[in-house]
Amino acid sequence: MLDFGNELLLPTSYGGAKILREAIADYLADSKQLSVSPDQIVVGAGTEYLYGMLIRLLGYNKVYGVEDPGYHKIRRVYHSSHVICRSIRLDKDGVPPQELEAANIDILHFSPSHHFPTGMVTPVSRRLQLLDYVTQQKGRYIIEDDYDSEFRFVGKPIPPMQSLDSQGKVIYMNTFSKTLAPSIRISYIVLPPELATEYQEKLGFYSCTVPSFEQYTLARFINQGYLERHIYRMRKHYREIRNLCLDSLKNSKLQKYISVSEEDAGLHFLLRIHTQKSDAEICSQLKRAGIRVSALSEYYATPPEEPTHTLVINYSGADEKSIHTALERLERIFL
Amino acid sequence: MLDFGNELLLPTSYGGAKILREAIADYLADSKQLSVSPDQIVVGAGTEYLYGMLIRLLGYNKVYGVEDPGYHKIRRVYHSSHVICRSIRLDKDGVPPQELEAANIDILHFSPSHHFPTGMVTPVSRRLQLLDYVTQQKGRYIIEDDYDSEFRFVGKPIPPMQSLDSQGKVIYMNTFSKTLAPSIRISYIVLPPELATEYQEKLGFYSCTVPSFEQYTLARFINQGYLERHIYRMRKHYREIRNLCLDSLKNSKLQKYISVSEEDAGLHFLLRIHTQKSDAEICSQLKRAGIRVSALSEYYATPPEEPTHTLVINYSGADEKSIHTALERLERIFL
Fold this sequence. Notes:
2 copies of one chain form a homodimer. Chain A has 10 helices and 11 strands. By secondary structure, chain A is an alpha/beta fold. Chain A has a 7-stranded mixed β-sheet with strand order 1-7-6-5-4-2-3, sandwiched between helices. In chain A, helix 5 links the parallel strand 4 and strand 5 (141-145). In chain A, helix 1 (18-32) packs parallel to helix 7 and helix 8 packs parallel to helix 10 (320-334).
């Protein structure tokens, strides 16, 4: 047992409690082969908060690039923070460097290890091209948003892009909202050493936004091995639900009208339906049947030329019964 | 006992848990004669975070005005957020409206009920003038930062400026870091109804930065009367220390070389020393003697023309013994 004494009543430094930053550094070394110093870590109340701090660090005059399709929320955070943010249309390997060049992007914000919503993983060759792009000019950086890389079901875990970076160009970020509970507002960034120093100088006067109580609790949770065990159990749980979903689809009468993709990681997969209906039509039919799903096309900043006919199926809250019910309703609509 | 069930695991809406916003509204009605709807309240992880959200709401193209002297941190938050922030030199009644006009201020951020570090209270006549100033033009607002108004020792509590405002021009803000503990990162803003609607539309996609667990705990703490009791006890405790400080000074040999002011509220007072020494000289002598105080002049954005010879004495952590020791050392330096 550690004795924290009065520390629970005192605010922590801008970066968070030392013991938590050390625990995160150990966790990153063990689980992601990422070797970082606790001094490079800044803990904050959620990723949206940390996006805002990164804008303060990297500059309001920079051009930010986000993925298209992608999370609308990230785009909205940038727009609400009054910086230029451009959506970059993905190709089959992820973000194309020539598109960054064309859009004059300084800061690329993306999720190379598991893109939302397509589930795509950026291959190493493309990662190296993107690193090359940001290394070409001073002031260019990559924000690697690794929000759900813990949930990978097939193949080896993919090392973060920051582990390829020898030039201090990649800012790694992750959150405990996905692995623990969304009510826990603890996320963190890992800054390259030079940026960590700059952060301290420019933004070190900010108080850490996470309560000390939560920080010490989480540090203990990580240090005593509970986080790893929890992730292990969750991964097992989600793998079972995922398999149940995929098997049910495979054995259903829908089977020849659909194809499934990007099912190896994350808590969702893509379901393409062979139909003439428009995406909006599909979704409104499903909604009327009580199935709330979104179409892949909803995640585009600029609508794709052709209908995607593809649904984003998030199965994190599903169970055997709800899968069965949903499937029956799907059959009724599409058969 | 209330049963929160799964709510502890779910994130709350952008503004915070309803039960906490209701508790804060009740508390404001009881203790500050401020009648607001819970829908006007936005809870966030600390005032600095909320300053940032207010900039997103009110605009990056606005000119922000802060008090001079004042908290450097507020100035630094605005500067780091890339907005124009001008320091307004105070006169004997606080912020002079003609200075706001001259500096083209859109948003005035100040503490009318207890200015830091002078302890000054803005009189009603000046409050009305300032309200008049912001009412003259669309897009002008006041941020009333009421961070330590709970600790008032003499006279009636001063109603917040928002209670004078019928035009929706005053944003009230306060924090629990001062009343409970600085490790608790919970602050809140009360928006005029029109701005509350705008907030929801523009920034409602943001997640609340305070963990649900903390929010439900604080709501219960307020609802069961613990906050009021705690403030009552703290006020009593601080009043005793303050009286001890003031009496000790009055009875010391220093008495004819000093004058004390602004001792009726907050957790500090001003100690003016009748000396020829410069402020920097005084502070470095005190520092060598192991007394860490700051000079009033340190809180100016632009240094005052004459030395203030005034120290800001924060007594919140003092006790009988430390007061005695400090006094002995002061006597050794100044007599």
